[in-house]
Amino acid sequence: MSTYQTIEDTIGGTPLVRLQRIPGQEATDRGNVILAKLEGNNPAGSVKDRAAMSMIRRAEERGDIRPGDTLIEATSGNTGIALAMVAAIRGYKMILIMPDNLSLERRASMTAYGAQLILTPAKDGGMEYARDLAMKMQAEGKGRVLDQFANEDNPQAHIESTGPELWTQTQGRITHFVSAMGTTGTIMGTGSYLRSMNPDIVVVGAQPAEGSQIPGIRKWPEEYQPRIYKPEWVNQFETIEQSEAEQMARRLAAEEGIFGGISSAGALVAALRVSARTEQATIVFIVCDRGDRYLSTGVFNQ
Ligand SMILES: Cc1ncc(COP(=O)(O)O)c(C=O)c1O
What we know:
It is globular and about 60 Å long. The chain has two domains: 7-45 and 153-294, 3-Layer(aba) Sandwich (Rossmann fold), CATH 3.40.50.1100; 47-145, 3-Layer(aba) Sandwich (Rossmann fold), CATH 3.40.50.1100. The chain is of the alpha/beta class. It is built from nine helices and ten strands. Helix 2 packs across helix 3, helix 3 (78-90) packs parallel to helix 4 and helix 8 packs across helix 9 (262-276). 50% of the residues are buried. The protein has a six-stranded mixed sheet. A four-stranded parallel sheet has the order 5-4-3-6, with helices on both faces. Bound molecules: pyridoxal-5'-phosphate.
């Protein structure tokens, strides 16, 4: 056992775990293996710890920001919690803007790390409204927006860590990479790294169906498409219904002992569809965060 110099050093290096029951006999007969990358094991509880650390550290290295500055971000939750953690470690003031319909656990975690929250009315436009307000506050000189949707240091985190970890953990055997899409940082960075190692790897993006609310992920309207998104890195898209993601989140916990969030379960739904149409595949999906972040929504009570 080694000692870490800072909590920052515990970000990444998350486990990759084989599913035992949910893939079923059919997947076994096809020679398919489905593996879960447990990003909820990061110190602030999600895949976003990697992006938050990367965006703040690199901005600091470029001299764009320095400790004591105020940072502003529009976030659906996990990025906010991760940024609040990194801001606490490195000595920044953090203002987080989020729609008021997001779960209570998320808000409480951000304030625990010392961030200031601004809640925007979900009925007035949700994340789009929050993103516009962040830009307006920056224009008014109230702080610096890192803008995870346009910041190349977001996917860069995954080019440098998540991608290489998966390549090593599967000993280069990964055939399919499945991720839910929010800012698209995870799928862009990890997908592009893996395809640079083996161009035959298939990158699959999970998106919510029209009218489905799955926290953290979106099918963005054209004018709000994240600037870091490059369509050429996603080979296949899977559309996920909220009800099937929620049901799968309950199964993932009860049948596999993996307590993940709803978007993670959506990625698993996509991974199972991939498994049903392929053979001899090593399919990795991202478990973005932990299920306890969603307890107050009641989704695990059914
Ligand atoms: C719960 C959850 N799932 C999925 C994602 C998508 O990750 P990315 O923004 O890297 O596409 C996020 C992003 O915030 C998230 O919070």
